[in-house]
Amino acid sequence: MNAPLSPREIVAGLVGRARAAQRVYDGYTQAQVDEVVTACGWAIVEPERNRTLAELAVRDSRLGNVPDKIAKNRRKTMGLLRDLKGAKSVGVIAKDPALGIVEIARPVGVVAAITPSTNPGATPANKVINALKGRNAIILAPSPKGSSTAAKLLEFMHAELDKVGAPRDLVQALPDPVTKETTLELMRQADLVAATGSQANIRAAYSSGTPAIGVGAGNVVSIVDATADLDDAAEKIARSKTFDNATSCSSENSVVILDAVYADGLAALARAGGVLLDAGEKAALARTMWPDGRLSAAVTAKAAPEIARLAGLARPALLAAKFLMVEESGTGSEHPFSGEKLSPVLAVYRARDFDHAFALTTAIYEYQGKGHSVGIHTRDDSHVLRLGLELPVARVIVNQAHCIATGGSFDNGLPFSLSMGCGTWGRNGFSDNMNYRHFLNITRISRVIPAREPTEQELFGEYLARHG
Fold it and tell me: Are 111 and 139 in contact (CB under 8 A)?
Protein backbone atom coordinates (compact mmCIF):
# COMPACT_ATOMS: atom_id res chain seq x y z
CA MET A 1 0.00 0.00 0.00
CA ASN A 2 1.44 3.38 -1.02
CA ALA A 3 1.97 6.01 1.64
CA PRO A 4 -0.23 9.10 1.23
CA LEU A 5 1.36 12.04 -0.51
CA SER A 6 2.69 14.85 1.65
CA PRO A 7 1.35 18.42 1.20
CA ARG A 8 4.59 19.29 -0.56
CA GLU A 9 4.17 16.43 -3.02
CA ILE A 10 0.49 17.18 -3.64
CA VAL A 11 1.22 20.81 -4.42
CA ALA A 12 4.32 20.02 -6.49
CA GLY A 13 2.18 17.84 -8.75
CA LEU A 14 -0.35 20.63 -9.28
CA VAL A 15 2.32 23.28 -9.83
CA GLY A 16 4.22 21.07 -12.28
CA ARG A 17 1.13 20.61 -14.42
CA ALA A 18 0.34 24.32 -14.15
CA ARG A 19 3.81 25.27 -15.34
CA ALA A 20 3.56 22.93 -18.33
CA ALA A 21 0.17 24.41 -19.29
CA GLN A 22 1.41 27.96 -18.78
CA ARG A 23 4.37 27.39 -21.11
CA VAL A 24 1.91 26.49 -23.86
CA TYR A 25 -0.37 29.42 -22.99
CA ASP A 26 2.59 31.84 -23.04
CA GLY A 27 2.61 31.46 -26.82
CA TYR A 28 -1.03 32.48 -27.28
CA THR A 29 -1.93 35.64 -29.19
CA GLN A 30 -4.07 38.38 -27.67
CA ALA A 31 -7.09 37.09 -29.59
CA GLN A 32 -6.55 33.56 -28.29
CA VAL A 33 -6.11 34.81 -24.72
CA ASP A 34 -9.29 36.86 -24.95
CA GLU A 35 -11.19 33.79 -26.16
CA VAL A 36 -9.94 31.80 -23.14
CA VAL A 37 -10.98 34.65 -20.84
CA THR A 38 -14.43 34.77 -22.42
CA ALA A 39 -14.78 30.99 -22.12
CA CYS A 40 -14.11 31.06 -18.38
CA GLY A 41 -16.48 33.99 -17.96
CA TRP A 42 -19.27 32.05 -19.66
CA ALA A 43 -18.58 29.13 -17.31
CA ILE A 44 -20.13 31.13 -14.45
CA VAL A 45 -22.47 33.51 -16.30
CA GLU A 46 -24.45 30.83 -18.19
CA PRO A 47 -27.75 30.91 -16.26
CA GLU A 48 -28.12 27.24 -15.34
CA ARG A 49 -24.52 26.94 -14.18
CA ASN A 50 -24.77 30.23 -12.32
CA ARG A 51 -27.80 28.97 -10.39
CA THR A 52 -26.08 25.65 -9.66
CA LEU A 53 -23.05 27.45 -8.23
CA ALA A 54 -25.18 29.83 -6.16
CA GLU A 55 -27.30 27.03 -4.69
CA LEU A 56 -24.22 24.95 -3.90
CA ALA A 57 -22.51 27.91 -2.26
CA VAL A 58 -25.44 28.65 0.06
CA ARG A 59 -26.06 24.97 0.82
CA ASP A 60 -22.49 24.19 1.83
CA SER A 61 -21.31 27.49 3.30
CA ARG A 62 -24.67 28.42 4.89
CA LEU A 63 -23.78 32.04 4.09
CA GLY A 64 -25.85 34.52 2.12
CA ASN A 65 -28.80 33.75 -0.14
CA VAL A 66 -29.25 32.24 -3.57
CA PRO A 67 -30.84 35.16 -5.51
CA ASP A 68 -28.10 37.58 -4.48
CA LYS A 69 -25.36 35.02 -5.16
CA ILE A 70 -26.78 34.61 -8.69
CA ALA A 71 -26.83 38.39 -9.16
CA LYS A 72 -23.29 38.73 -7.81
CA ASN A 73 -21.87 35.94 -9.97
CA ARG A 74 -23.36 37.47 -13.09
CA ARG A 75 -22.81 41.14 -12.38
CA LYS A 76 -19.22 40.88 -11.19
CA THR A 77 -18.23 38.67 -14.11
CA MET A 78 -20.04 40.72 -16.74
CA GLY A 79 -18.45 43.89 -15.37
CA LEU A 80 -15.00 42.34 -15.31
CA LEU A 81 -15.31 41.14 -18.91
CA ARG A 82 -16.43 44.65 -19.89
CA ASP A 83 -13.30 46.07 -18.24
CA LEU A 84 -11.04 43.56 -19.99
CA LYS A 85 -12.56 43.90 -23.45
CA GLY A 86 -9.94 45.50 -25.69
CA ALA A 87 -7.33 45.73 -22.90
CA LYS A 88 -3.85 44.75 -24.10
CA SER A 89 -2.08 42.07 -22.07
CA VAL A 90 0.05 40.27 -24.67
CA GLY A 91 3.22 41.62 -26.31
CA VAL A 92 3.66 45.38 -26.72
CA ILE A 93 1.01 47.14 -24.65
CA ALA A 94 2.31 50.75 -24.69
CA LYS A 95 4.78 53.00 -26.54
CA ASP A 96 6.06 56.43 -25.51
CA PRO A 97 8.29 57.75 -28.33
CA ALA A 98 9.13 60.92 -26.40
CA LEU A 99 10.69 58.87 -23.61
CA GLY A 100 11.95 56.09 -25.86
CA ILE A 101 10.04 53.51 -23.80
CA VAL A 102 8.19 50.44 -25.05
CA GLU A 103 6.23 48.34 -22.53
CA ILE A 104 5.78 44.60 -23.01
CA ALA A 105 3.37 42.47 -20.94
CA ARG A 106 4.79 39.27 -19.50
CA PRO A 107 3.12 36.60 -17.32
CA VAL A 108 3.92 36.23 -13.64
CA GLY A 109 3.70 32.42 -13.97
CA VAL A 110 1.65 30.31 -11.56
CA VAL A 111 -0.78 32.16 -9.30
CA ALA A 112 -2.00 30.83 -5.95
CA ALA A 113 -5.48 32.25 -5.36
CA ILE A 114 -6.70 32.19 -1.76
CA THR A 115 -10.48 32.65 -1.77
CA PRO A 116 -13.12 33.05 0.98
CA SER A 117 -16.28 31.14 1.86
CA THR A 118 -18.35 34.35 1.62
CA ASN A 119 -18.02 34.47 -2.20
CA PRO A 120 -17.00 30.94 -3.23
CA GLY A 121 -18.07 31.39 -6.86
CA ALA A 122 -17.61 35.05 -7.78
CA THR A 123 -14.21 35.63 -6.17
CA PRO A 124 -12.47 32.56 -7.68
CA ALA A 125 -13.96 33.37 -11.09
CA ASN A 126 -12.74 36.96 -10.85
CA LYS A 127 -9.20 35.87 -10.01
CA VAL A 128 -9.14 33.15 -12.66
CA ILE A 129 -10.21 35.58 -15.38
CA ASN A 130 -7.71 38.27 -14.32
CA ALA A 131 -4.88 35.73 -14.12
CA LEU A 132 -5.72 34.20 -17.50
CA LYS A 133 -5.83 37.66 -19.09
CA GLY A 134 -2.09 37.85 -18.34
CA ARG A 135 -1.31 34.35 -19.75
CA ASN A 136 -0.82 32.85 -16.29
CA ALA A 137 -1.89 29.53 -14.81
CA ILE A 138 -3.81 29.63 -11.54
CA ILE A 139 -4.44 27.21 -8.67
CA LEU A 140 -7.34 27.90 -6.31
CA ALA A 141 -7.08 27.42 -2.57
CA PRO A 142 -10.72 27.79 -1.51
CA SER A 143 -11.92 27.87 2.06
CA PRO A 144 -13.14 24.44 3.22
CA LYS A 145 -16.77 25.66 3.13
CA GLY A 146 -16.30 26.93 -0.40
CA SER A 147 -14.39 23.97 -1.83
CA SER A 148 -17.43 22.24 -3.31
CA THR A 149 -18.39 25.41 -5.18
CA ALA A 150 -14.82 25.85 -6.41
CA ALA A 151 -14.75 22.24 -7.62
CA LYS A 152 -18.00 22.71 -9.58
CA LEU A 153 -16.73 26.02 -11.01
CA LEU A 154 -13.57 24.22 -12.10
CA GLU A 155 -15.66 21.54 -13.81
CA PHE A 156 -17.58 24.20 -15.74
CA MET A 157 -14.40 26.08 -16.69
CA HIS A 158 -12.68 22.92 -17.89
CA ALA A 159 -15.63 22.19 -20.17
CA GLU A 160 -15.27 25.65 -21.70
CA LEU A 161 -11.47 25.39 -21.97
CA ASP A 162 -11.99 22.13 -23.89
CA LYS A 163 -14.18 24.00 -26.40
CA VAL A 164 -11.41 26.50 -27.21
CA GLY A 165 -8.61 23.95 -27.10
CA ALA A 166 -6.80 25.44 -24.10
CA PRO A 167 -5.01 23.27 -21.50
CA ARG A 168 -7.25 22.34 -18.58
CA ASP A 169 -4.29 22.62 -16.20
CA LEU A 170 -4.33 26.39 -16.63
CA VAL A 171 -7.01 26.36 -13.92
CA GLN A 172 -6.75 23.92 -11.01
CA ALA A 173 -7.70 23.73 -7.34
CA LEU A 174 -6.31 22.10 -4.23
CA PRO A 175 -7.93 18.68 -3.68
CA ASP A 176 -10.64 18.23 -1.10
CA PRO A 177 -10.30 18.34 1.86
CA VAL A 178 -8.45 21.65 1.60
CA THR A 179 -6.08 21.92 4.55
CA LYS A 180 -4.02 24.68 6.07
CA GLU A 181 -0.88 22.70 5.25
CA THR A 182 -1.61 22.36 1.52
CA THR A 183 -2.68 26.01 1.31
CA LEU A 184 0.56 27.18 2.91
CA GLU A 185 2.57 24.88 0.66
CA LEU A 186 0.81 26.27 -2.41
CA MET A 187 1.72 29.78 -1.31
CA ARG A 188 5.37 28.74 -1.05
CA GLN A 189 5.57 27.02 -4.45
CA ALA A 190 3.62 29.53 -6.56
CA ASP A 191 5.09 32.61 -8.27
CA LEU A 192 2.45 35.01 -6.93
CA VAL A 193 -0.14 34.78 -4.15
CA ALA A 194 -3.44 36.66 -4.56
CA ALA A 195 -5.17 36.42 -1.20
CA THR A 196 -8.71 37.42 -0.24
CA GLY A 197 -10.40 36.41 3.01
CA SER A 198 -9.47 36.40 6.68
CA GLN A 199 -6.62 38.54 7.91
CA ALA A 200 -4.92 35.33 9.10
CA ASN A 201 -4.78 34.17 5.47
CA ILE A 202 -3.53 37.56 4.34
CA ARG A 203 -0.72 37.54 6.91
CA ALA A 204 0.19 33.98 5.89
CA ALA A 205 0.37 35.09 2.26
CA TYR A 206 2.66 38.00 3.09
CA SER A 207 4.94 35.77 5.18
CA SER A 208 5.04 32.87 2.68
CA GLY A 209 8.24 34.04 1.01
CA THR A 210 6.36 34.43 -2.29
CA PRO A 211 5.36 37.84 -3.69
CA ALA A 212 1.80 38.47 -2.53
CA ILE A 213 -1.08 40.83 -3.07
CA GLY A 214 -3.52 40.76 -0.17
CA VAL A 215 -6.44 42.87 0.97
CA GLY A 216 -7.32 44.63 4.21
CA ALA A 217 -10.23 44.21 6.57
CA GLY A 218 -13.51 45.94 5.86
CA ASN A 219 -15.58 47.88 8.37
CA VAL A 220 -17.31 50.44 6.21
CA VAL A 221 -18.81 53.64 7.59
CA SER A 222 -21.31 55.74 5.64
CA ILE A 223 -21.85 59.36 6.63
CA VAL A 224 -25.21 61.01 6.07
CA ASP A 225 -24.84 64.77 6.26
CA ALA A 226 -27.45 67.51 6.52
CA THR A 227 -27.63 68.02 2.74
CA ALA A 228 -28.37 64.38 1.88
CA ASP A 229 -31.51 63.11 0.18
CA LEU A 230 -32.47 61.01 3.19
CA ASP A 231 -34.83 58.53 1.52
CA ASP A 232 -32.36 57.96 -1.32
CA ALA A 233 -29.52 57.47 1.18
CA ALA A 234 -31.58 55.08 3.31
CA GLU A 235 -32.64 53.01 0.31
CA LYS A 236 -29.05 52.66 -0.86
CA ILE A 237 -27.72 51.86 2.61
CA ALA A 238 -30.46 49.24 3.07
CA ARG A 239 -29.74 47.67 -0.32
CA SER A 240 -26.05 47.47 0.45
CA LYS A 241 -26.51 46.31 4.04
CA THR A 242 -28.85 43.46 3.10
CA PHE A 243 -27.32 42.26 -0.19
CA ASP A 244 -26.37 38.59 0.19
CA ASN A 245 -26.98 39.01 3.95
CA ALA A 246 -23.95 41.34 4.22
CA THR A 247 -21.30 38.80 3.18
CA SER A 248 -19.38 41.59 1.46
CA CYS A 249 -16.49 43.33 3.21
CA SER A 250 -17.86 46.47 1.51
CA SER A 251 -21.22 46.33 3.25
CA GLU A 252 -21.85 49.21 5.67
CA ASN A 253 -21.21 48.34 9.30
CA SER A 254 -21.93 51.79 10.71
CA VAL A 255 -23.79 54.88 9.63
CA VAL A 256 -22.99 58.32 11.07
CA ILE A 257 -25.90 60.74 10.79
CA LEU A 258 -25.56 64.45 11.52
CA ASP A 259 -27.67 65.76 14.39
CA ALA A 260 -29.62 68.18 12.18
CA VAL A 261 -31.17 65.26 10.29
CA TYR A 262 -30.73 62.46 12.83
CA ALA A 263 -34.40 61.81 13.62
CA ASP A 264 -35.42 62.10 9.98
CA GLY A 265 -32.50 59.87 8.95
CA LEU A 266 -33.55 57.16 11.38
CA ALA A 267 -37.11 57.41 10.12
CA ALA A 268 -35.89 57.01 6.53
CA LEU A 269 -33.87 53.93 7.49
CA ALA A 270 -36.97 52.52 9.19
CA ARG A 271 -38.99 53.08 6.01
CA ALA A 272 -36.24 51.19 4.14
CA GLY A 273 -36.71 48.15 6.39
CA GLY A 274 -34.49 48.80 9.40
CA VAL A 275 -35.71 48.23 12.95
CA LEU A 276 -34.03 50.00 15.87
CA LEU A 277 -33.36 47.89 18.97
CA ASP A 278 -33.88 49.21 22.49
CA ALA A 279 -31.14 48.98 25.12
CA GLY A 280 -32.20 45.56 26.41
CA GLU A 281 -32.51 44.11 22.93
CA LYS A 282 -29.10 45.55 22.03
CA ALA A 283 -27.51 43.87 25.05
CA ALA A 284 -29.11 40.52 24.18
CA LEU A 285 -27.93 40.82 20.58
CA ALA A 286 -24.39 41.64 21.71
CA ARG A 287 -24.27 38.52 23.89
CA THR A 288 -25.39 36.41 20.94
CA MET A 289 -23.06 37.96 18.38
CA TRP A 290 -19.94 38.01 20.59
CA PRO A 291 -20.47 35.18 23.11
CA ASP A 292 -16.75 34.87 23.91
CA GLY A 293 -15.53 38.24 22.67
CA ARG A 294 -15.28 37.04 19.06
CA LEU A 295 -17.89 37.36 16.34
CA SER A 296 -19.97 34.17 16.26
CA ALA A 297 -20.21 32.21 13.03
CA ALA A 298 -23.82 31.50 14.00
CA VAL A 299 -24.84 35.04 12.96
CA THR A 300 -22.51 35.54 10.00
CA ALA A 301 -24.40 36.28 6.79
CA LYS A 302 -27.75 35.25 8.25
CA ALA A 303 -30.99 37.14 7.61
CA ALA A 304 -32.05 39.71 10.21
CA PRO A 305 -35.09 37.75 11.52
CA GLU A 306 -32.93 34.66 12.03
CA ILE A 307 -30.39 36.69 14.00
CA ALA A 308 -33.18 38.17 16.12
CA ARG A 309 -34.51 34.69 16.91
CA LEU A 310 -31.02 33.47 17.84
CA ALA A 311 -30.81 36.38 20.29
CA GLY A 312 -34.19 35.48 21.80
CA LEU A 313 -35.85 38.63 20.49
CA ALA A 314 -39.52 38.03 19.78
CA ARG A 315 -40.80 41.54 18.99
CA PRO A 316 -42.83 41.13 15.75
CA ALA A 317 -41.12 44.06 14.05
CA LEU A 318 -37.70 42.43 14.53
CA LEU A 319 -38.93 39.17 13.04
CA ALA A 320 -39.94 41.04 9.89
CA ALA A 321 -36.93 43.37 9.67
CA LYS A 322 -34.67 43.64 6.64
CA PHE A 323 -31.86 44.79 8.92
CA LEU A 324 -31.34 45.53 12.60
CA MET A 325 -30.09 48.86 13.96
CA VAL A 326 -28.40 49.66 17.27
CA GLU A 327 -27.49 53.12 18.51
CA GLU A 328 -23.81 53.42 19.38
CA SER A 329 -21.51 56.17 20.59
CA GLY A 330 -18.18 54.53 21.44
CA THR A 331 -15.56 52.61 19.49
CA GLY A 332 -13.11 49.81 20.21
CA SER A 333 -13.27 46.37 21.78
CA GLU A 334 -15.56 47.58 24.58
CA HIS A 335 -18.05 48.58 21.89
CA PRO A 336 -18.17 45.55 19.58
CA PHE A 337 -20.91 47.01 17.40
CA SER A 338 -18.28 49.50 16.16
CA GLY A 339 -16.48 46.65 14.35
CA GLU A 340 -17.16 44.47 11.34
CA LYS A 341 -20.30 42.39 11.80
CA LEU A 342 -20.69 40.44 8.51
CA SER A 343 -24.44 40.45 9.05
CA PRO A 344 -27.40 42.78 8.42
CA VAL A 345 -26.77 44.63 11.68
CA LEU A 346 -26.03 48.35 11.47
CA ALA A 347 -24.53 50.57 14.17
CA VAL A 348 -25.96 54.11 14.14
CA TYR A 349 -23.95 57.09 15.43
CA ARG A 350 -25.21 60.62 16.04
CA ALA A 351 -22.75 63.40 15.14
CA ARG A 352 -23.02 67.03 16.25
CA ASP A 353 -21.67 68.32 12.93
CA PHE A 354 -19.42 67.18 10.11
CA ASP A 355 -16.25 67.66 12.15
CA HIS A 356 -17.68 65.30 14.76
CA ALA A 357 -18.76 62.84 12.04
CA PHE A 358 -15.22 62.88 10.67
CA ALA A 359 -13.79 62.25 14.16
CA LEU A 360 -16.21 59.35 14.81
CA THR A 361 -15.40 57.77 11.47
CA THR A 362 -11.67 58.12 12.11
CA ALA A 363 -12.05 56.47 15.53
CA ILE A 364 -14.02 53.57 14.04
CA TYR A 365 -11.30 52.99 11.45
CA GLU A 366 -8.57 53.16 14.07
CA TYR A 367 -10.34 50.17 15.63
CA GLN A 368 -11.10 48.26 12.40
CA GLY A 369 -11.24 48.90 8.66
CA LYS A 370 -8.52 51.49 8.16
CA GLY A 371 -7.65 51.88 4.50
CA HIS A 372 -10.69 50.21 2.93
CA SER A 373 -13.34 52.76 1.98
CA VAL A 374 -15.95 55.17 3.24
CA GLY A 375 -19.39 56.12 2.00
CA ILE A 376 -20.99 59.55 2.11
CA HIS A 377 -24.47 60.75 1.21
CA THR A 378 -24.30 64.48 0.56
CA ARG A 379 -24.69 67.38 -1.84
CA ASP A 380 -21.64 69.13 -0.34
CA ASP A 381 -18.52 68.46 -2.40
CA SER A 382 -16.29 70.01 0.27
CA HIS A 383 -17.24 67.13 2.60
CA VAL A 384 -16.39 64.62 -0.11
CA LEU A 385 -13.02 66.22 -0.79
CA ARG A 386 -12.14 66.38 2.89
CA LEU A 387 -12.66 62.64 3.21
CA GLY A 388 -10.42 62.07 0.20
CA LEU A 389 -7.71 64.40 1.49
CA GLU A 390 -7.67 63.45 5.16
CA LEU A 391 -9.36 60.11 5.95
CA PRO A 392 -7.11 57.00 5.70
CA VAL A 393 -9.17 55.21 3.04
CA ALA A 394 -8.48 54.13 -0.53
CA ARG A 395 -12.01 54.82 -1.85
CA VAL A 396 -14.67 57.46 -1.13
CA ILE A 397 -18.05 56.26 -2.40
CA VAL A 398 -20.43 59.17 -3.00
CA ASN A 399 -24.23 58.79 -3.01
CA GLN A 400 -24.11 55.10 -3.93
CA ALA A 401 -25.01 51.73 -2.44
CA HIS A 402 -21.60 51.02 -1.00
CA CYS A 403 -21.15 47.27 -1.43
CA ILE A 404 -22.50 47.52 -4.98
CA ALA A 405 -20.25 50.45 -5.90
CA THR A 406 -16.90 49.95 -4.23
CA GLY A 407 -16.00 46.82 -6.21
CA GLY A 408 -16.87 48.51 -9.49
CA SER A 409 -20.27 49.31 -10.93
CA PHE A 410 -21.76 49.89 -14.35
CA ASP A 411 -22.37 53.51 -13.32
CA ASN A 412 -18.96 54.34 -11.82
CA GLY A 413 -15.37 54.11 -13.03
CA LEU A 414 -13.86 51.72 -10.49
CA PRO A 415 -12.58 48.38 -11.84
CA PHE A 416 -14.89 45.43 -11.21
CA SER A 417 -13.31 43.36 -8.45
CA LEU A 418 -14.09 41.43 -5.28
CA SER A 419 -10.69 42.20 -3.74
CA MET A 420 -9.98 45.73 -2.60
CA GLY A 421 -6.47 46.88 -1.70
CA CYS A 422 -6.27 49.09 1.39
CA GLY A 423 -2.83 50.62 0.97
CA THR A 424 -0.32 50.87 3.77
CA TRP A 425 -3.16 51.97 6.07
CA GLY A 426 -4.56 48.43 5.82
CA ARG A 427 -1.09 46.80 5.71
CA ASN A 428 -1.39 46.16 1.95
CA GLY A 429 1.08 46.86 -0.82
CA PHE A 430 -1.56 48.34 -3.15
CA SER A 431 -4.56 50.63 -2.79
CA ASP A 432 -6.67 50.00 -5.89
CA ASN A 433 -9.17 47.33 -6.83
CA MET A 434 -7.35 44.10 -7.71
CA ASN A 435 -7.32 43.82 -11.51
CA TYR A 436 -5.54 42.13 -14.40
CA ARG A 437 -2.51 44.44 -14.26
CA HIS A 438 -1.64 43.01 -10.84
CA PHE A 439 -1.11 39.67 -12.64
CA LEU A 440 1.45 41.02 -15.14
CA ASN A 441 5.16 41.61 -15.20
CA ILE A 442 6.07 44.58 -17.41
CA THR A 443 9.31 44.59 -19.38
CA ARG A 444 10.42 48.06 -20.53
CA ILE A 445 12.62 48.62 -23.56
CA SER A 446 14.57 51.87 -23.30
CA ARG A 447 16.14 53.66 -26.29
CA VAL A 448 18.29 56.77 -26.51
CA ILE A 449 16.43 60.08 -26.72
CA PRO A 450 17.74 63.65 -26.96
CA ALA A 451 19.38 64.51 -23.65
CA ARG A 452 17.83 67.09 -21.39
CA GLU A 453 20.14 67.74 -18.46
CA PRO A 454 18.97 70.52 -16.12
CA THR A 455 21.20 73.31 -14.89
CA GLU A 456 21.63 74.19 -11.24
CA GLN A 457 19.75 77.42 -11.95
CA GLU A 458 16.71 75.49 -13.22
CA LEU A 459 16.55 73.27 -10.16
CA PHE A 460 17.83 75.51 -7.35
CA GLY A 461 17.55 79.09 -8.61
CA GLU A 462 14.18 79.88 -7.03
CA TYR A 463 15.12 78.13 -3.80
CA LEU A 464 18.46 79.94 -3.47
CA ALA A 465 16.91 83.30 -4.30
CA ARG A 466 14.42 82.77 -1.47
CA HIS A 467 16.65 81.21 1.15
CA GLY A 468 20.22 82.12 0.17
Answer: yes
Place 1 in a pLDDT band, splitting at 50, 70 and 90: low
Catalytic one of 40, 249, 403, 422 = 249
What letter does residue 210 receive in the DSSP assignment? S
Domains of the chain and any CATH numbers: 7-215+434-445 (3.40.605.10), 220-416 (3.40.309.10)
Cα dihedral 222→414→64→276 (10° resolution): 10
Q: Is 403 considered catalytic here?
A: no
Question: What value does the CA radius of gyration of the chain take, rounded to a whole number of Å?
Answer: 24
Question: Rounded distance, CA 3 to CA 176, Å?
Answer: 18
Report CA-CA distances (Å) from 422 to 31, 350, 374, 395, 431: 33, 27, 12, 9, 5
**pLDDT for 39-58, tens place per residue?**
999 999 999 999 999 999 99
End-to-end distance of the chain based on CA atoms, in angstroms?
85
CB distance 333 to 341 below 8 Å: no
Burial class (CB in 10 A: 0-12, 13-18, 19+), 197: buried
| 371 vs 216: CA distance, rounded Å | 7
pTM for this model (two decimals): 0.94
